[in-house]
């Protein structure tokens, strides 16, 4: 099944445009003499099969409408920052940008998920020149931005990989160890932030 149907090119183009806009925000910071906003930026249009599985998991219709209107993360960007305060600097600039509206926010940094997952998520609504799934042109599309530190990102990648290993022994212990690891990494992020502040004071 082709879940994105005729909207695939618009999704690809939206991803490219958003990546350029985020890069430009960071470049403007550097030009103004401030540190770059992030260490790296990645993006993807969610693979068709993952989108089909996600629609099923969330109880959304497994249709183009379900994928583009209900799911809202067909287009996803991940901004991986060096320090926690860069996440909030980045967020401030994203929120102030008139190119999109924020329709949903989830602060899993202040409120980590029970398994230890930390990240800040925002869903953007973007008006594009393309026709959307409701037949409007200019059309409304959604994209998710995840903002994390390098430490949070390393943990999430490892945990994501573990999720797909279903036949592990002692999954409960692995979960406990992963959570402990997330807490240690969170403490390191705070320590690194303190070191940055101390360096900047000199
Ligand atoms: P993938 O394969 O990474 O794309 P909701 O807002 O609750 O209706 P959603 O999208 O489940 O819907 O919300 P949430 O909690 O903001 O999660 C969205 C994405 O965050 C996930 O996308 C993951 O990328 C990431 N994420 C959330 N929780 C975890 C977690 O516990 N571990 C890891 N590693 N990543 C997490 P997908 O589509 O589930 O997966």
From TrEMBL:
Pfam families (alphabetical): RelA_SpoT
Tree of life domain: Bacteria
InterPro entries the record matches: GTP_Pyrophosphokinase, NT_sf, RelA_SpoT
Domain RelA/SpoT: 43-170
Pathway in which the depicted protein is active: Purine metabolism; ppGpp biosynthesis; ppGpp from GTP: step 1/2
PANTHER family: GTP PYROPHOSPHOKINASE YJBM, GTP PYROPHOSPHOKINASE YWAC
Name assigned to this protein: GTP pyrophosphokinase family protein
Protein species of origin: Limosilactobacillus alvi
């Amino acid at each position: 099944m082709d879940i994105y149907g005729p909207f695939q090119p618009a999704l690809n183009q939206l991803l490219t445009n958003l990546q350029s806009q985020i890069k430009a925000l960071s470049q403007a910071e550097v030009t103004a003499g401030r540190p770059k906003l992030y260490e790296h930026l990645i993006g993807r249009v969610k693979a068709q099969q993952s989108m089909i599985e996600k629609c099923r998991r969330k109880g959304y219709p497994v249709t183009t409408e379900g994928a583009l209107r209900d799911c809202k993360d067909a287009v996803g960007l991940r901004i991986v920052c060096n320090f926690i305060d860069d996440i909030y600097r980045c967020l401030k600039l994203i929120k102030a940008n008139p190119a999109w509206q924020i329709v949903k926010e989830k602060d899993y940094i202040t409120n980590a998920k029970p398994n230890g997952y930390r990240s800040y998520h925002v869903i953007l609504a973007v008006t594009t020149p393309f026709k959307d799934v409701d037949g409007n042109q200019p059309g409304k599309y959604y994209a998710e931005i995840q903002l994390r530190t390098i430490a949070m990102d390393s943990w999430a990648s490892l945990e994501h990989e573990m999720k797909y290993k279903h036949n592990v022994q002692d999954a409960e212990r692995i979960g406990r160890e992963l959570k402990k690891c997330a807490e240690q990494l969170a403490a390191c992020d705070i320590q690194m932030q303190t070191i940055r502040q101390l360096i900047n004071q000199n």
